[in-house]
UniProtKB/TrEMBL annotation:
This is Transposase.
Amino acid sequence: MMGRSGFKSGCDMNCILNFTKHERVAILRKFANKSKDEIDNHLYSLIEKREKPKFTYHALKGEERHVVCRKAFISLHNTSTKAVYRLTKLLEKDQVPEDFRGKHGHQRSPRPQWVNDMMHHHMLYCVSLQDIGRHDFTDDAGVLVVNRMYQLFVDMSPWMEYDVSYYVYLRYFKRHFGGHYSTLDV
Ligand SMILES: [Zn+2]
């Protein structure tokens, strides 16, 4: 069935119509020359675990994240129901997409120290904001949700998204801050 937008997405909420053709192309262009792993990590960072509905999905308009329905998410990213199902299952279990790079010997050059420094300072910034009550990165149970910090990180520095996947950010956080904070994403 064709939606109002003319795309076979099954979306009734005009999620896709909110994106111009140019913006839709820009979304797909992000995937050019990216590995499956990088694409997985990117998509994963755009899904958020919630209560009701269980997940929220986002698509980027330039640097802004916009909530879209699951059908629109699949259509806009030219991905599949199966791939998104797998990612939400991982998110449900607070796991991250596996990083295959090491296994196949295509290891990237080591992350530059300034990237680590940026992550580190952002994490300090987030926990400070949390401590002084300027921002809440915790869920209803008061448990820190690292993914929310990561969302802010990529919101503030979208160009970092491919250098620092959610997986990298989470691993770094657990290694350097994990002893002090109980996190949802353990
Ligand atoms: Zn929709």
